[in-house]
Amino acid sequence: MGVPVLAETSRIPFPQTPPPAPLKKPKVFLGQPRDIVPPACPGQFPGTPPVTDMDYGGIPLWINRLLGEPSVLSLQGRMDRAWFRASNPQTCPEQCDCPIQWETSLYCDHRALENIPEGLPQRTQYLFLQGNNISSLSYSALANITNLRWLIIDNNQLKSDKLELNSLQNQTQLRYFFANRNYLTSVPGGLPAGLKQLRLANNHISSISPGAFQNLQNLTLLLLQGNRLQTMTGDDVKGLVGLNLLDVSGNLFSAVPRHLPPSVQQLYLSNNSFSGLHEGSFEGFHNLKYLRLSHCGLQSEGIHPQAFNHSSLVELDLSYNKLTTIPRFPTTLQYLYLEANRIQEFNVTSFCREVGPLSYSRMKILRLDGNKLTYHQLPPDWVYCLRVLQRIYI
């Protein structure tokens, strides 16, 4: 059984009925943090590596070797192409490499190709086309192969008006379709029902084709960050009953989209411009565990006291906003990032409405660095509320 693709923090166990915890002094880090929990997506915090043309949408790709999935996504600079041809007697298009180690993989990436090579071998299951100049995708280009599982066509010139509606319909085995960093203006329709990952980050997408997701009940990961979406309705996402991770960061939303799939556990909304968060902004997200809201221009007066009242939340990122006070959070929250705001005071009631043997915050990591707040401003009773805190940055 394959390993699901989740952010690193998704491995954190979530206690349902934690026992009483003894008081334990947390590690306090003053000033610039050096040993921090990394963000789930590159580029969120200063010092993280810049997003490159090989980031595949910013979410790691986990390989299932038991299924024969290739552990190398590009052969560029690894070995002389002549070696591949000499060691593999099987047919291979002139513009591609066919390593004998992965006989069902076809590496045609970074060749300045303007079209998908002709005569693709029927054995092809993993097709790598990233880093070319391909502008169209037609049914005929892939007609010779019917067992395709991965199609990676990142960093090309792909355009919506040159993407045939039925180009992928016969690819019933297709599980991953990556088309990040192209020139698509809408989410394509006619995608195969077995698709598990759809990565369309950093395109020019401003709309979703009617019924584009209607048959994608198996989709677990959808990346749409870095596009031009302004709205997303219930009809737009109809059919996404198994979606786990949704990234719509860096779009043009002015409010949290309503009627998103309730199955979502990881929701990334950073780099949008939200006027505020009301009580029902995340209504219906009964499974939501990881929420990213950094760089959204949020202000304290625009956040309803019950906006984050979701006991399922494990991690919340509110960094790089304009908060002057700490909002209220559920006691079940374990990881909170509030760095680079304008917070001037620390209120224990933001984390604990009351303190007792079983009434305390389960917070483990708290970042407050980059605010107008010092360690000496913390009230003396904060350790009774945050009694299981492991690290605080201030």
UniProtKB/TrEMBL annotation:
Gene3D superfamilies: Ribonuclease Inhibitor. One of its GO terms (cellular component) is extracellular space. Its main location: membrane. Residues 91-126 form the LRRNT domain. InterPro entries: Leu-rich_rpt (IPR001611), Leu-rich_rpt_typical-subtyp (IPR003591), LRR_dom_sf (IPR032675), LRRNT (IPR000372), SLRP (IPR050333). This is LRRNT domain-containing protein. The keyword Calcium does not apply. PROSITE patterns: LRR (PS51450). It is found in: Cell membrane. It comes from Crenichthys baileyi. Keywords: Cell membrane, Glycoprotein, Leucine-rich repeat, Membrane, Repeat, Signal, Transmembrane, Transmembrane helix. It comes from the Eukaryota. Residues 1-25 are annotated as: Disordered.
